Amino acid sequence: MMGVLGVRRGLEWLLGVYFLSHIPVTLLIDLQALLPRELYPIELRNLQQWYAKEFKDPLLQDPPTWFKSFLLCELVFQLPFFPFATYAFFKGGCKWIRTPAIIYSVHTMTTLFPVLSTLLFEDFSKASGFKAEGPKTFRERLTLVSVYVPYFLIPLTLLLFMLRSPHYKYEEKRKKK
What Cα–Cα distance (Å) separates residue 96 from each residue in 7, 26, 43, 79? Predict the structure, then answer.
């Protein structure tokens, strides 16, 4: 029994770290593609530009409208959820997090499908609709995808954990007659 409890607490801590680390990544890097430049000091703008050029990330170099819509969802829906999820998973055993965690995980995985598909299959040549420099080789594509794929795999793990863990399943309470 202690082994199952240890695995559950280990996974809860991993999820707590994920959500805690997601707060600064969202605020300081991701949202630069959506919010006015003036909100960010030059050092953070340089960091975001370095990443976008180094990893040839066309979505952050010159974000298309559809990607900005995902960032708006990240700002409005996901960012407010991160502190609650951080608390719930570090504390452990908070059954109230189940439904919001399922919604978050499904939403995030859904937005990652077009992102990953674009990074893997889009023609980033000058003839395409992308103005920014994208990955040219298969290796460059895999490197860039490796940055995004944890944001698919961890929500997938979260979804399976919430659906399969007996600890997070609601028990139906029946009225006594």
Answer: 20, 24, 39, 18
